[in-house]
Design brief:
Length: about 400
């Protein structure tokens, strides 16, 4: 962007960062006046002992009281489960929400607190059963005490002003957007991410890297989002291979949580061109491929196909990724970056392309889905680019 262009940058929330920072949760809730809190999570994290790690600390501190654990959240932040969760919160007399989990848990809790603020019991009442964004909610502040403990380093959903919800009746995803959606406090404690397996660590880390790319290369980027995105790139390049090798490396796990958070702040406040997410939403939904894996595969194939677009701002990004740029033409730096991303994928165990192959019907369906995805509204991809991305991203 040019320096004379207007931009707004908003972030609401406090970050508690470092090993053991889950011990801050009690006093943070106390400061917000919440006496009874509900832990909202999924069964996998209960079984893995992660929820007990957090609950044991709160139980030992005795304040606030843990009213109960709601562990029914599933992937995709489903509307029926969100509606069940707010009913449970009412029954338990919950005065504060503690989200422990990945993106689906984070987004479900954001939806629950929005419903509390707006006095509705059915999330579709504020989403009207449609896909797309619901941004007419800013007139009323959302003040319900909310703390988030991310257990993956990738989505950064603890700090984004968006909640993506699957409305099951229509099988469509919609977004709730509100400046008060980020958690009042995000607790970036590496110890709760130790048990994340290498494959999921790699995939979620690639999601964070793709957020950096969307934020940095978009038309609305600004100096603040650039600073966050480029430093997050440096951290991910350095630390993601380390955490994949050794999940208990405290320094690397901490830096990945920080990178994920910075990447999402940049993405939330800048990204108007999001070609990687435009394709990954469609491919992920149709073929049930995880969001992180989809972005991991696509980050190099999309850059290769749209090389002239990326070449416009490639130099600083390439340098943050450790590529020498002096005296090299931008388009050649871009192709060198594609190669470096391909090597990084290999190092992290991300495949060069998806295992599936597409028939003519699949291709046509994906073309329509990519064209219709909300991430493409401000940067629609030409049909030839969509076809070329599909050709590079799937087994031929
Ligand atoms: Fe993402």
């Amino acid at each position: 962007m040019s320096m004379s262009q207007y931009f707004a940058f908003e972030y609401r929330g406090l970050l508690d960062v470092g090993a053991g920072s889950i011990s801050q949760i009690g006093c943070r809730f106390e400061n917000m006046g919440a006496r009874r809190i509900g832990i909202i999570t999924d069964k996998g994290l209960v079984d893995a002992g992660v929820v007990d790690m957090v609950k044991d600390v709160l139980d030992a501190q005795r304040f606030p009281v843990v009213a109960g654990v709601y562990d029914k959240i599933e992937v995709d932040a489903k509307s029926s489960i969100i509606n069940d969760c707010i009913r449970w919160c009412g029954e338990m007399g919950v005065e504060g929400l503690l989200a422990v989990g990945g993106g689906s848990v984070m987004d479900s809790v954001k939806a629950v607190k929005t419903m509390m603020a707006f006095g509705v019991r059915d999330v579709t009442e504020i989403m009207r059963g449609t896909a797309g964004s619901h941004i007419g909610l800013k007139v009323r502040p959302i003040t319900f005490p909310h703390i988030a403990v991310p257990t993956t380093a990738g989505t950064g959903a603890e700090s984004s002003p968006v909640a993506v919800v699957l409305i099951e009746e229509s099988d469509l995803k919609g977004s709730i957007m509100h400046p008060d959606l980020p958690a009042n406090v995000a607790v970036l404690d590496p110890t709760v991410t130790y048990s994340l397996p290498p494959r999921l660590t790699a995939e979620t880390g690639c999601d964070a890297l793709s957020h950096c790319m969307e934020a940095y290369f978009c038309m609305n980027s600004n100096s603040i989002s650039d600073a966050l995105a480029l430093h997050a790139v440096r951290l991910i390049k350095k630390y993601l291979p380390i955490v994949i090798q050794n999940g208990r490396n405290v320094e690397a796990r901490t830096q990945m949580l920080i990178a994920s958070n910075m990447a999402m702040q940049a993405y939330s406040m800048a990204a108007t061109s999001a070609p990687i997410h435009n394709c990954s939403h469609a491919i992920g939904a149709k073929l049930h491929i995880s969001h992180g894996l989809a972005n991991g595969v696509l980050m190099s194939t999309v850059m290769k196909v749209l090389a002239p677009f990326y070449a416009m701002r490639i130099t600083d990004f390439a340098e943050a990724f450790g590529i020498k740029t002096e005296g090299v033409a931008p388009i050649d730096i871009t192709y060198a970056t594609v190669e470096a991303l391909e090597n990084f994928k290999k190092e992290c165990g991300i495949p060069a392309c998806f295992a599936q192959s597409l028939n003519a019907e699949d291709k046509e369906d994906l073309r329509i889905r990519i064209k219709a995805d909300i991430a493409g509204f401000t940067f629609p991809l030409p049909m030839e680019a969509i076809d070329a991305i599909m050709a590079l991203s799937f087994v031929q």
